[in-house]
């Protein structure tokens, strides 16, 4: 029995724990799904990068003019036959001289190229620098699609070709113009990319602006200043918490149903045990007194009659137990056929039937009633209520107690009271004793047998009769009151 109750408690706790865990998961999931982290532009930050772009563009233009001036001066020196080794220009990889009268280019300085520059009329390979004949006149920049770049200066008969290194040039320009990366006071950031330089893994910029120059296209990448704001999608957030609430309610209902099922199972087991005990006691007494009566009759004794009286009492007790069990098993709510009847005589028989059993326990019984008491009711149901109330008084009032049964008509209602001056019902259990399988506990009731169905059945029968059974306060002991509406007296 205890093991089953413990298993029931564990099952209920597991159901509650599982439903709570699932509800928490749903609530957290809804919160996380609904949560959005937004990047909102800072108010008043429009065009914050213009100052940096203007500064970089001016620096690039200044360096472009100085660089072209330096390249042109060195090229003129080579054309004049000078050797300006002490006047090297940053970013120059190799220097060649092209002559209209010579097929092969003349190396002058820097690296020796595997594909040296050639005039158009001498071009033999697609990999080489190929310059048109007009390159021998004037000066300017020459580009090829694969990133090669050169500065050419010609005097009509010959030209100096200065092959440039874009990467070296970019380093010089970046250093001199301070084209790197930085942040603004508003929180935005920027980064300059050199020609042919790939973007960093930082991610896509909000804006990209290009500055064209002789060095190539420099790009300013811009990340606007933003504020990070947390917003929630209310439908998802509310949906998550509603789902969690539904799961909690469902889990609570399921746990309540489980607890009720385990409680009913425990009550049924307890009921079976109590009924078995209740039936065993009168049966044992019947068998014992029957054996004693047989022995006494064989000896010609005179104690046979008292033995038979005890046997009758036990049979009546057994009948009451069986009747209560049958009433409870059939259900406690039925529609009864009421008929007008005078209850004085049938209730008197019931009360007198308890006089001798109470006297054997040194308990007195008084019966107060009017001459007649007409009421539309079921006399068998009222009798069953009185039997249960007197049976409780017999069990729990104790030896030497006085039991009083009073029948009266009060304000158009029948009032029946069964009272005793025993120990009474313990405080706080006045309503609980009307529940099935419940017996009020006190030290005087230890060892007293019973199914715990008498008061529950009696209250149910009172409701079926249109009345009510209640416990009323008493100076001493217990007092139960049954009230039923009286029948109207028929004319004639």
Automatic annotation (TrEMBL):
<dbReference type="InterPro" id="IPR004358">
    <property type="entry name" value="Sig_transdc_His_kin-like_C"/>
</dbReference>
<keyword id="KW-0812">Transmembrane</keyword>
<keyword id="KW-0472">Membrane</keyword>
<dbReference type="InterPro" id="IPR003594">
    <property type="entry name" value="HATPase_dom"/>
</dbReference>
<dbReference type="InterPro" id="IPR036890">
    <property type="entry name" value="HATPase_C_sf"/>
</dbReference>
<keyword id="KW-0902">Two-component regulatory system</keyword>
<dbReference type="Pfam" id="PF02518">
    <property type="entry name" value="HATPase_c"/>
</dbReference>
<keyword id="KW-0597">Phosphoprotein</keyword>
<dbReference type="InterPro" id="IPR050736">
    <property type="entry name" value="Sensor_HK_Regulatory"/>
</dbReference>
<keyword id="KW-0418">Kinase</keyword>
<dbReference type="InterPro" id="IPR005467">
    <property type="entry name" value="His_kinase_dom"/>
</dbReference>
<keyword id="KW-1133">Transmembrane helix</keyword>
<dbReference type="Pfam" id="PF00512">
    <property type="entry name" value="HisKA"/>
</dbReference>
<keyword id="KW-0808">Transferase</keyword>
<dbReference type="InterPro" id="IPR003661">
    <property type="entry name" value="HisK_dim/P_dom"/>
</dbReference>
<feature type="transmembrane region" description="Helical">
    <location>
        <begin position="234"/>
        <end position="256"/>
    </location>
</feature>
<feature type="domain" description="Histidine kinase">
    <location>
        <begin position="274"/>
        <end position="488"/>
    </location>
</feature>
<dbReference type="InterPro" id="IPR036097">
    <property type="entry name" value="HisK_dim/P_sf"/>
</dbReference>
<protein>
    <recommendedName>
        <fullName>histidine kinase</fullName>
        <ecNumber>2.7.13.3</ecNumber>
    </recommendedName>
</protein>
